[in-house]
Specification:
The protein has 142 residues and is of the alpha+beta class. Helix content is 35%, strand content 18%. The chain has a single domain, classed as CBS-domain (Roll), CATH 3.10.580.10.
Length: 142
């Protein structure tokens, strides 16, 4: 199975967008993850609902602050056409529960989540991936 068969569509935010605008997008779309893209639509990072709690609310940052102040600058991505195994490998090695999917020009096309994989794959494989994503142990080399 290929990643584009399981991925969800994703809307990019820009690093100049406000925290408030991103939080509103998350509320309106019922999502907890927003890719941050450059002006060409290439992912440069991400913001999660957890980031908003820890880096905005807990630190007393203004909701009008730009996302550049709270975003993670890691863009963990795989390519359209990759097998879901590639996404699972990235999740394990990078300890993330979502991977962005890009086209051959590195433009964002969607997001595949651990939940997407769990729903589509055998329970044992998804459970193993979940354990490794949440583990404190070094990533295994499969």
């Amino acid at each position: 199975m290929r990643v584009e068969e399981l991925m969800s569509e994703a809307t990019c935010c820009r690093e100049t967008d406000t925290v408030r605008a991103c939080a509103k997008l998350m509320k309106d779309e019922d999502i907890g993850f927003a890719p941050i893209c450059d002006t060409e639509g290439r992912p440069i990072g991400a913001v999660t609902d957890r980031d908003l709690v820890i880096r905005v609310i807990a630190d007393g940052l203004s909701p009008d602050a730009p996302l550049s102040k709270v975003m993670s600058r890691d863009a963990i991505a795989c390519q359209m056409g990759d097998g879901v195994e590639k996404a699972m490998e990235l999740m394990r090695n990078e300890r993330v529960s979502r991977v962005m999917v890009v086209d051959d020009q590195d433009k964002l096309k969607g997001v595949i989540s651990l939940q997407d994989l769990a729903q589509a794959s055998e329970e044992d494989e998804a459970g193993e991936t979940l354990q490794e994503v949440k583990s404190d142990a070094p990533p295994s080399m499969h």
